[in-house]
């Protein structure tokens, strides 16, 4: 593993332990060249996924981008980081288990919305506003008016 600080390819593993409920291995590494320490994560990948964007471009699936978008929606909400990691792991496993190597960005967005709707209503609306590209207040009103959060109340 290359050192992210000096670029040396001779790094050493100092500690390994399970992470993300056993879905990953966390490795603490050090670089003998510059003395820096850093952490890496090793995860099982069932298949390489390609995301088909709305303009038909194809890009590699980026787990970090998925996690970042979920974190943004959940910013300042009462959801801890471990829960976010479990959500990302769950969505990634679902995508890999579907058996297709190409998945649309729309399908990923729908999975995230489905998960956030159950978890946190504010995060759900935040994510939807970006995902569905709301351009004005009327878009929010129409979206909120169509919601049923399962508690008997609309919006």
UniProtKB/TrEMBL annotation:
UniProt remark on cofactor binding: Binds 1 zinc ion.
Sorted UniProt keywords: ATP-binding, DNA-binding, Metal-binding, Nucleotide-binding, Repressor, Transcription, Transcription regulation, Zinc, Zinc-finger
GO BP term, example: negative regulation of DNA-templated transcription
Residue ranges annotated for the ATP-cone domain, each copy included: 49-139
Coiled coil: none
Zn finger region (unnamed): 3-34
One Pfam assignment: ATP-cone
GO molecular function, a single term: ATP binding
Cofactor: Zn(2+)
The keyword Repressor appears for this protein: yes
Superkingdom per UniProt: Bacteria
InterPro entries: ATP-cone_dom, NrdR-like_N, RNR_NrdR-like
Similarity annotation: Belongs to the NrdR family.
NCBIfam families (alphabetical): transcriptional regulator NrdR
Its biological purpose: Negatively regulates transcription of bacterial ribonucleotide reductase nrd genes and operons by binding to NrdR-boxes.
UniProt name for this protein: Transcriptional repressor NrdR
Organism, scientific name: Pseudoroseomonas cervicalis ATCC 49957
Lineage, opening ranks: Bacteria, Pseudomonadati, Pseudomonadota, Alphaproteobacteria, Acetobacterales
């Amino acid at each position: 593993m290359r050192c992210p600080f000096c670029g040396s390819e001779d790094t050493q593993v100092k500690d390994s332990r399970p992470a993300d409920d056993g879905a990953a291995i966390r490795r603490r590494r050090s670089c003998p060249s510059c003395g820096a320490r850093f952490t890496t994560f090793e995860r099982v990948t069932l298949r390489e996924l390609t995301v088909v964007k709305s303009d038909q471009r194809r890009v590699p699936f980026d787990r970090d981008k998925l996690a970042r978008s979920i974190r943004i929606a959940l910013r300042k909400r009462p959801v801890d980081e471990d829960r976010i990691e479990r959500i990302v792991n769950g969505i990634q496993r679902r995508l890999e288990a579907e058996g297709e190597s190409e998945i649309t960005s729309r399908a990923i967005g729908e999975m995230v919305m489905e998960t956030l709707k159950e978890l946190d209503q504010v995060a759900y609306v935040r994510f939807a506003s970006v995902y569905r590209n709301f351009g004005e207040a009327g878009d929010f009103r129409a979206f909120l008016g169509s919601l049923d959060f399962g508690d008997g109340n609309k919006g």
